[in-house]
Specification:
single chain, mainly alpha, Helix Hairpins, 2 domains, elongated
């Protein structure tokens, strides 16, 4: 091909020379120039004869380059397929082991459940349930009273802000903020401010600036009611119920069979999470395997067509005979 390119360039130079300066030289050396023209024509015929062969060689070179690309794609796809098949086998083994481990844990939990049915353990569970109810009741009562107080404090704050009680309103504001959230404020955070705010609210109730409109407000802010003592007692009641509940739960969790059951349950939950992840991986690998099993025969069929075109006869690749 390099010779053909060089010969073509040489021929172009000769043709230009004949068409240019050669016209004048013919007048001086007619015979010599005639011989030169004959030689140039002969070279032109030889170069023209080479052109189809060079074109065919270039076409074959391009075809071979494409075949190499296809072969690289096939090799990569086959390697991917082998890896996916191996990974699928490994994941299936892991799934089998995980399923067996979960089954073993489920049996252990069933046995622990039978053991947990003893009278002593059943009694402790009943006590824990009762303490949950007691804590919930104390919590509801405390929250209900604090809700009533919060409502009247907001009323008092507005009354003071409309009048000349800006400094007094600042006494109420921190308590209003403490009661504004959905959570239960800490006793030590709430009580000092509440002790300063309640006398202001009672004063406004006495002067008629705040009107008690429902049974809960009238009961909580009656003259006989000691709100501070009541709220303190409710916090103490809730704290006591919570403390006894935690102690009962610790005692329950410390029972060997319960401790073993809780450990088994935690392990089973972790195992189920791992199993779900493994199954997702297996599905993804299975989909990838199907794609490769479609892609590889298609690449091989394309390569067979390209090879057949290159060789000028049908070519079948080993391993693709049935495709």
């Amino acid at each position: 091909e390099e010779f053909y390119t060089a010969a073509s360039e040489c021929l172009k130079g000769c043709v230009k020379g004949l068409a240019g300066p050669g016209r004048y030289i013919r007048g001086v050396f007619p015979e010599e120039m005639k011989e030169i023209r004959v030689a140039v024509d002969r070279i032109g015929r030889e170069v023209n004869a080479m052109t189809p062969q060079i074109a065919g060689a270039r076409k074959k070179r391009d075809q071979i380059a494409e075949l190499r690309k296809t072969e690289a794609s096939i090799s990569g796809a086959v390697a991917d397929h082998e890896k996916v098949v191996a990974d699928l086998a490994r994941v299936r083994d892991e799934i089998t082991r995980e399923e067996q481990a979960i089954e073993d844990l489920s049996q252990a939990l069933a046995q622990a459940g039978d053991a947990a049915g003893s009278e002593k353990i059943a009694g402790l569970k009943t006590a824990i349930s009762g303490l949950h109810e007691e804590l919930s009741a104390a919590d509801r009562t405390l929250r209900s009273d604090l809700s009533v107080i919060s409502h009247l404090l907001r009323k008092g704050e507005k009354v003071l802000q409309r009048g000349d009680g800006a400094s007094a309103a600042r006494e109420i504001e921190p308590v209003v903020d403490a009661l504004a959230g959905s959570g239960l404020p800490a006793e030590e955070q709430l009580m000092p401010g509440l002790a300063r705010a309640l006398p202001l609210i009672r004063s406004m109730i006495g002067s008629g600036e705040i009107v008690l409109k429902n049974k809960e407000e009238r009961e909580l802010f009656s003259e006989r009611s000691d709100i501070m003592a009541r709220i303190t007692a409710l916090y103490a009641q809730r704290r006591d119920a919570e403390s006894r509940l935690k102690a009962a739960e610790r005692a329950y969790a410390a029972i060997p069979v319960i401790e073993q059951a809780q450990q088994a349950e935690r392990e089973r939950e972790k195992g189920e999470a791992r199993l779900a992840s493994l199954r997702e991986k297996m599905i993804a690998m299975g989909e990838r395997k199907k794609i490769l099993e479609t892609e590889i025969p298609a690449l091989m069929a394309g390569m067979e067509q390209d090879l057949s075109a290159l060789e000028g006869k049908p070519v079948t690749l080993i391993g693709n005979e049935g495709a």
